[in-house]
Specification:
Order of helices and strands: HEHHEEEEEHEHEHEEEHHHHEHEH
Strand content: 15-25%
CATH architecture of the largest domain: 2-Layer Sandwich
Distance between the termini: 28 Å
Largest sheet: 5 strands, mixed
Low-confidence stretches: none
Radius of gyration: 25 Å
Number of strands: 13
Mean pLDDT: 89
CATH superfamily of the largest domain: ATPase, nucleotide binding domain
Helix content: 25-40%
Strand order of the largest sheet: 6-5-4-7-8
CATH topology of the largest domain: Nucleotidyltransferase, domain 5
Number of helices: 12
CATH class of the largest domain: Alpha Beta
Shape: elongated
Number of domains: 3
Length: 406
C-alpha cells in the first residue's frame, strides 16, 4: 500500500516526507529502492530526490559502473545528508549543565559540561542562564559548528513537565527551571526548544541507544539523589494529566521505603551514620580521619572489597529498591525496569538481591537491568527528542547553508 496522500494541497510535502523517512533509515538508496518502499512512481521519486538535493537534505552519490561489461547509465544513488544541520541535547540538573551536539543521525559531535558556580540551590536565574548558554557555546565550538546549524534543541529538567512541554508549577524545583527556556534564552537564535522531564528523556535514551532497544513496555529509573521514573507503555511515553506520571511521590506511603531518596543519597547517609556510630569499616580508611562525610563511591568501593558494613548498607538499599520496583511492576506491568543515572554502573552490585526479593513482592516481577549509558543518559534522550522534532518537521526547516525553500 502506498504511504503517500492524494490530496493536491499536501501531496508534494507528503511525498518529500515519505522519501526522507526511507532515507533516514540509513544507507544508500536507488530510485528502485525508493519506489519499492514508498509506492511512488519512478518519475515522482526522481523529482522528489532532485528537490531534496536542491534543499540540502539529500546527497547524490557519484555513480560507479559495475565492471566494463555494464551497459547503459548507472542507477542514480542517493543518501540522507546527516550534515545538513545539527541538534542540541541539554541536561539541566540542579548542580550541573551538560550539552551534546549531534548530527542528524544522532552521532555526537561535541560535548561540554559545567557546574553551577557557588551553592547550586542558591544560584540566581541569571547565574543559571549564563552557565547554560556558555555550556552550549562550548559544545558548539567543540563540534566546529555555528549557531545557525542548530535545527532544534531538546532540554531535560529535574522537575515536572506537562505533555505540552511546559514546566508544571507547584512542584519541587519547578521555579528553579522556569527560566524562559523556550521563549527568552535563545530568542536571538530562533531555535525550536522542547522541554521534557529528565527521567522521561532517560527512558527515550534507553529505548533508542541502550539495553531497552526494541522494548515497548519499560520503566527507566533515575536513582541518584532522588528517584524518578520515565514510563513507556506500548512504545508511547506516558505523562499523565499534568506531567506527573513517574514522579513516584507515593513512595512515602510504601512500607520499607518511606521517601524518594535515591541510591547515592542513601549510600551517603547510611555510610555517614555508620562512621558517626564508630563502626569498624573500611569506609573510614577511604574517607580519611578528618571527616565523617561519606560519598556513595566509597560505600560501593568498600563493598567490592567485602567490607561487612558496606555490604550491609548495599543490602538495605537493594531491598528498598526491590520494593520500589515491585510498585512499578504491580501498577504498570513493564517488561523491563532499567536502573539509570550516575550511580548505575555501581548498582550492578544490587541486582542479585533485587531479583531475589521481587517474586515475593509482586505477582508481575519485571526484568531488571542496569543502564550502560552513564551520566550522559539525559542529554542523549534530549538529543533524541530534538531529532524527533526535526524528523517530523524536516520539510519545513532549512538546512545549514541553504536558502529557505518553499
Amino acid at each position: 500500500m502506498s504511504i503517500t496522500a492524494n490530496t493536491p494541497q499536501v501531496l508534494r510535502r507528503t511525498n518529500l516526507k515519505a522519501v526522507l523517512d526511507v532515507m533516514r533509515g540509513g544507507g544508500t538508496c536507488t530510485g528502485s529502492d525508493l519506489m519499492e518502499r514508498t509506492g511512488l512512481t519512478r518519475a515522482t521519486v526522481i523529482a522528489v530526490c532532485d528537490d531534496l538535493v536542491r534543499r540540502g537534505w539529500v546527497r547524490e552519490l557519484v555513480a560507479e559502473r559495475n565492471g566494463a561489461a555494464q551497459k547503459g547509465r548507472p542507477a542514480r544513488r542517493f543518501a540522507f545528508n546527516e550534515e545538513a544541520g545539527c541538534v542540541l541535547g541539554l541536561d539541566l540538573g540542579v548542580a550541573t549543565v551538560t550539552a551534546q551536539v549531534a548530527d542528524l543521525n544522532g552521532n555526537v559531535l561535541g560535548r561540554a559540561a559545567q557546574r553551577i558556580p557557588g551553592k547550586a540551590l542558591e544560584a540566581t536565574a541569571a547565574v543559571r542562564l549564563e552557565t547554560i548558554t556558555s555550556t552550549v557555546d562550548r559544545a558548539l565550538q567543540e563540534a566546529g559548528l555555528p549557531t545557525t546549524a542548530v535545527l532544534a534543541v531538546g532540554i531535560g529538567v529535574a522537575t515536572v513537565v506537562d505533555r505540552h512541554g511546559n514546566i508544571a508549577g507547584g512542584h519541587q524545583l519547578s521555579a528553579m527551571f522556569d527560566l524562559g527556556l523556550q521563549t527568552e534564552v535563545w530568542r536571538d537564535r530562533a531555535w525550536p526548544v522542547l522541554l521534557e522531564n529528565d527521567a522521561n528523556l532517560a527512558a527515550l535514551a534507553e529505548r533508542w541507544r541502550g539495553i531497552a532497544q526494541g522494548t515497548d513496555d519499560l520503566a527507566v529509573m533515575l536513582t541518584g539523589e532522588r528517584l524518578g521514573a520515565g514510563l513507556i507503555e506500548s512504545g508511547r511515553l506516558l505523562h499523565g494529566r499534568n506531567g506527573g506520571a513517574g514522579e513516584v511521590g507515593t513512595l512515602q506511603l510504601v512500607a520499607g521505603v518511606g521517601s524518594r531518596d535515591g541510591i547515592a543519597r542513601l549510600a551517603r547517609q547510611w555510610g555517614t551514620q555508620a562512621l558517626a556510630e564508630g563502626r569498624q569499616t573500611l569506609i573510614r580508611e577511604l574517607v580519611g580521619p578528618e571527616t565523617n562525610r561519606v560519598s556513595a563511591r566509597f560505600v560501593f568501593e568498600a563493598a567490592a572489597r567485602e567490607d561487612a558494613v558496606a555490604l550491609e548498607i548495599l543490602d538495605r538499599i537493594a531491598r528498598r529498591m526491590a520494593r520500589v520496583i515491585a510498585v512499578l511492576g504491580t501498577f504498570l506491568d513493564p517488561e523491563l525496569v532499567v536502573i539509570a543515572g550516575a550511580v548505575a554502573k555501581s548498582a550492578v552490585a544490587l541486582l542479585p538481591t533485587i531479583n531475589q526479593e521481587l517474586p515475593a513482592l509482586t505477582d508481575t516481577p519485571p526484568r531488571v537491568e542496569v543502564s550502560q549509558l552513564g551520566d550522559g543518559i539525559v542529554a542523549t534522550g534530549a538529543v533524541r527528542l530534538a531529532l524527533d522534532y526535526v524528523e517530523e518537521n524536516m520539510v519545513s526547516l532549512t538546512p545549514l547553508g541553504q536558502p529557505a525553500v518553499t
